[in-house]
Amino acid sequence: MGKNSEISWTDHTWNPWQGCRRISAGCKNCYMFRDKKRFGQDGNRIHMSSMATMKKPLSWKEPAMVFTCSWSDFFIEEADFWRETAWEIIRKTPHLTYQILTKRPERIKECLPLDWPLGNVWLGVTAENQDMADLRVPVLLTIDAPVRFISVEPMLGPVDLTEHFQLQPGIQWVICGGESGPGFREMKKEWAWDLSQQTEIPQVPFFMKQMSGLNPKKIPIPDVLSIKEFPDQARAI
User: Fold this and answer.
1) 74-99, pLDDT tens digit by residue?
2) What domains, with CATH codes, occur in the chain?
3) Which of 45, 49, 118, 164 is 20 to 30 A distant from 224 in Cα terms?
């Protein structure tokens, strides 16, 4: 089964609902709003996708990783009415690993199903700068999950996760990436390098997704940052 996502750390993207609201600095140049505008749609309109899209994971028969809600936030309040349907799809596809990344960790606990934790759901938070890391990571660490991860993308400044790595239960994965598209804010390679070094002592897998720029495919990742590690569980899928 081939991938249907260009995002290098996943196999598929699944958007049971679409549309979002900007809530922090990392949202300024969000690709979802840019793409929606290109299609003549309003990215601020939060709505459920078609039932065919909602049920799409049921057609994926081989084990794979699924980035969930790349065009929204799984825990956004407007999706409360649809979320149980999504949980049911997730239950019916235990061979798929759902990577749920949120900027709203304060809503996670109230939105989890009664049978949580689900063995095929990873939970992550975006930490685009130090303030968001210090705000969101401690909340994530209060929630049980097979894998907890941090996405430092778009990386808007140096981020120190050292103290967070010392908290238990721990973080099992760190993703790093620069901002792409028009108006991108530059990520210094020194910031990314420092972050990668922070993961060495606690032995947290590190995945360097991209540098910043208009076309990340044409901006090579420096050899020293060519690291694409996954949690052990991912290799066992």
Assistant:
1) 999 999 999 999 999 999 999 999 99
2) 12-236 (3.20.20)
3) 164
